[in-house]
Amino acid sequence: MEAARADPAAGLDVDKLTYEIFSILESKFLFGYDDPKLFSAGTSPRPGATSGKATPLRAPAAGKGKVCILSIDGGGRAADGLLAGAALVRLEASLRRRTGDEGARLADFFDVAAGSGAGGVLAAMLVARGPAGRPLFSAEDALAFLLRSLRRGWSDGGGGAGGGLRALFRRPGTAFRKLFGDLTLRDTVRPVLVPCYDLATGGPFLFSRADAVETRAYDFRLRDVCAATCAGSGGSAAAVEARSCDGSTRIAAVGGGVALGNPTAAAITHVLNNKSEFPLAAGVEDLLVVSIGSGEGEPRGAASTSEIVRIAAEGVADMVDQAVAMAFGHNRTSNYIRIQATGTPRPGRSGAARSGCVAEEMLAQKNVESVLFRGKKVAEQTNAEKLERFAHELVKERDRRRTSPVSPTVVKQHPSTPPPASYSNLVSQTLTSIM
Question: What's the DSSP call for residue 57?
Answer without folding.
Answer: P
